[in-house]
């Protein structure tokens, strides 16, 4: 090719998203929810011309290829209409090419190619993916005699750089919710009996340490190699909606919910470790690339790293369905165009390039607001560190947004991890969420092994790691009830401002740890635009917003008292 190839990937179903791979190393990725302000917003017709094209400049370049993925819903029945939308919206460099790929394969391409590994075992586990009729990969034992309506719920691969990955096993399910199967289905049912809405699995994970994992005496899940089945005893308990309705406004008790979460998390982790052990036996691989919605379970991920036979594990920051658009784009670049990809997921700031004037314009729009003060400190990191030390909650909006569901420093809310009331204040007065939800720590990478039981960088907040006992009392805002924390190590090469802020805070206080949680209000997704972040500042009880080069404060705001209670 005379110029760099451009491949567009589009996830058309849950957690709708778009991605662009330009050349060997440039990648953009954006979720629909960031634009519509509706969490987990499903992809639909109209997204490409009305949402993605206006926001992402890379889509206005000539395109060589478009790769779409669908899942188990009915949207793929409209594939011809979707393809026409692509033809009407994008400019192709030559003859238009549009390819469709199956769901788990798109997850796999979001995990292994961007990993640091030359070879790895690949594992994709989620609730349900594509039906057999829509598979775009071959798997032993699945052929024309296999019922076409069966759905993939887990897939397992041998991966080696320079070769297409080989899928050697899948668990299939007939979609009958009277006989659910697989780890993703199990955790979905566990979540839905206690909480409403999509994406509440993290609530179950956060609630589990408050319960007794043996309270109901329920059996382990049945594991047969790569297949996981759910015993009838579990299905009977998960059908008792009244007993576990505490968070749904019903008569259920907190204790029962916490106990069920604990027992469910135990069963999930035990089965996942058995499947992981089977995968290692089958492949003999040193490394594991893991994707799918279940890969967002930090507690289980920490156990895989500590207890499995794999030496290292890579989990993409967008392990959920929102990351499949990126997998589509990389698949198209590598397998359809035959171009190598040098993109490695070293940070997650893959959102659109910010408009140079956007921050200044947003700040000008609130310059006359008497409830805000706009400043330009000579040393922004030091000014923010001083506010944090005094007990203020400070948000950060900078650069390209994170592609995944977790804020990693470009759309973050920051607080003092030493403050005994900070977790409750952020949960109640800023995030508007349940009191038991943990907050994650940022930590300077060189200080992490001293404070946490970790021996490697963990930049994506994906692993629950033990806080060393001697540091737990000093860091109450980030130490969960079970003594763990979902840490993010910070290095200057990946997150320079965050590193400067932590360094300034450490130099001021002696503590190299801060709270980091996503910049959003109650029920909202991560902010995307400067206007979104300013609205979050004014609509919550946050105290300040760093938006380089500006610091926006609420004059007269009172810092969080150390004895604050809800």
From TrEMBL:
<dbReference type="InterPro" id="IPR051338">
    <property type="entry name" value="NodU/CmcH_Carbamoyltrnsfr"/>
</dbReference>
<dbReference type="InterPro" id="IPR038152">
    <property type="entry name" value="Carbam_trans_C_sf"/>
</dbReference>
<dbReference type="Pfam" id="PF02543">
    <property type="entry name" value="Carbam_trans_N"/>
</dbReference>
<protein>
    <submittedName>
        <fullName>Carbamoyltransferase</fullName>
    </submittedName>
</protein>
<dbReference type="GO" id="GO:0016740">
    <property type="term" value="F:transferase activity"/>
</dbReference>
<dbReference type="Pfam" id="PF16861">
    <property type="entry name" value="Carbam_trans_C"/>
</dbReference>
<comment type="similarity">
    <text>Belongs to the NodU/CmcH family.</text>
</comment>
<feature type="domain" description="Carbamoyltransferase">
    <location>
        <begin position="93"/>
        <end position="330"/>
    </location>
</feature>
<feature type="domain" description="Carbamoyltransferase C-terminal">
    <location>
        <begin position="385"/>
        <end position="554"/>
    </location>
</feature>
<dbReference type="InterPro" id="IPR003696">
    <property type="entry name" value="Carbtransf_dom"/>
</dbReference>
<dbReference type="InterPro" id="IPR031730">
    <property type="entry name" value="Carbam_trans_C"/>
</dbReference>
<keyword id="KW-0808">Transferase</keyword>
């Amino acid at each position: 090719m005379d110029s760099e190839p451009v491949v567009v990937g589009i996830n058309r179903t849950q957690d709708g998203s778009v991605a662009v791979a330009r050349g060997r190393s440039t990648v953009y990725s954006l979720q629909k929810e960031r634009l519509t302000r509706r969490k987990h917003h499903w992809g639909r017709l109209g997204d490409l011309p009305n949402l993605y094209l206006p926001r992402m400049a890379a889509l206005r370049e000539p395109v060589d290829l478009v790769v779409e993925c669908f899942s188990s819903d009915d949207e793929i029945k409209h594939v011809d209409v979707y393809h026409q939308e692509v033809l009407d919206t994008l400019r192709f460099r030559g003859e238009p090419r549009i390819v469709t790929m199956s769901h788990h394969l798109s997850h796999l391409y979001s995990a292994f190619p961007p990993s640091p590994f030359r070879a790895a075992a690949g594992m994709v586990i989620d609730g349900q993916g594509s039906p057999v009729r829509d598979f775009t990969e071959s798997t032993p034992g699945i052929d024309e005699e296999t019922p076409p309506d069966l759905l993939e719920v887990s897939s397992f691969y041998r991966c080696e750089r320079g070769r297409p990955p080989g899928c050697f096993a899948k668990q299939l399910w007939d979609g009958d919710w009277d006989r659910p199967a697989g780890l993703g289905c199990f955790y979905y049912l566990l979540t839905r009996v206690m909480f409403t809405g999509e994406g509440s699995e993290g609530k179950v994970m956060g609630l589990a340490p408050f319960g007794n994992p043996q309270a109901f005496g329920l059996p382990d899940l049945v594991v047969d190699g790569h297949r996981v089945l759910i015993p009838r005893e579990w299905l009977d308990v998960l059908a008792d909606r009244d007993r576990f309705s505490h968070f749904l406004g019903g008569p259920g008790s907190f204790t029962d919910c916490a106990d069920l979460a604990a027992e469910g998390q135990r069963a999930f982790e035990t089965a996942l470790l058995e499947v992981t052990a089977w995968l290692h036996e089958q492949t003999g691989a040193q490394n594991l690339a893991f994707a799918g919605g279940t890969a967002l379970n930090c507690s289980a991920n920490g156990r895989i790293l500590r207890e499995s036979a794999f030496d290292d594990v890579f989990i993409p920051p967008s392990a959920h369905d929102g990351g499949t658009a990126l997998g589509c784009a990389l698949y198209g670049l590598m397998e359809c165009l035959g171009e190598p990809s040098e993109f490695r997921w070293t940070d997650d700031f893959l959102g659109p390039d910010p408009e140079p004037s956007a921050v200044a314009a947003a700040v000008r729009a609130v310059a006359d607001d008497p409830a805000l003060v706009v400043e330009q400190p000579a040393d922004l990191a030091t000014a923010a560190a001083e506010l944090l030390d005094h007990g203020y909650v400070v948000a950060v909006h900078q650069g390209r947004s994170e592609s995944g569901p977790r804020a990693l420093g470009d759309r973050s809310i920051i607080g003092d991890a030493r403050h005994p009331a900070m977790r409750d204040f952020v949960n109640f007065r800023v995030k508007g969420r349940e009191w038991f939800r943990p907050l994650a720590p940022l930590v300077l990478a060189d200080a992490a092994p001293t404070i946490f039981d970790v021996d490697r960088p963990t930049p994506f907040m994906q692993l629950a790691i033990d806080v060393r006992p001697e540091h737990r009392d000093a860091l109450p805002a980030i130490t969960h009830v079970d003594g763990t924390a979902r840490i993010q190590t910070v290095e200057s090469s990946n997150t320079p401002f965050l590193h400067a802020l932590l360094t300034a805070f450490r130099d001021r206080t002696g503590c190299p740890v801060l709270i980091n949680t996503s910049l959003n209000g109650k029920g909202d997704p991560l902010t995307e635009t400067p206007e979104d972040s300013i609205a979050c500042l004014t609509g919550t009880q946050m105290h300040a917003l760093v938006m380089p080069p500006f610091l926006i404060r609420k004059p007269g705001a009172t810092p969080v008292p150390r004895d604050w209670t809800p």
